[in-house]
Fold:
Amino acid sequence: MTADKNLEFSLLLFRLATVAFLLVWVFQKLLVPAGAQGVFKTFYFSEPPLALIAAFGVAQLLIVLAFGLGFLRFWSYGAVIIMHAVSTLSTIPRLMDPFTKPNALFWAAVPVLAGLIGLFLLRDRDRMFSIDARRGR
Structure:
């Protein structure tokens, strides 16, 4: 593989792995909305109605699918960064206390956020299996 193809393949792998990572949270909202409601109560200090959580899930699903397909890369990649940044920032108290179980696990979100920012910066090079790249965007 050439260096360009290696980069494109690496970006594709990260994009698809991120889709799998985010779909866990999307499907929690859609399939186990009461569990997602508990997450909101713990980290966002609100308890939205189950219908609103399902609506969040549908909106997130559309964003994650666009992201996974490389569609509207500026907007979908940016939206994924914002979604993940909000969820990561909501765990700051746990990040500041990493040695209390299970807080060390929350640190996994930090390199994912950094990787998403890198993917956003390299979005024009993320062409493999990308709708935008096929459309010449």
Notes: Helices lie at 3-31, 33-44, 50-69, 73-89, 92-95, 109-121, 131-134. The two ends are 24 Å apart (CA to CA). The chain has a mean pLDDT of 92. The CA atoms of residues 111 and 117 lie 10 Å apart.
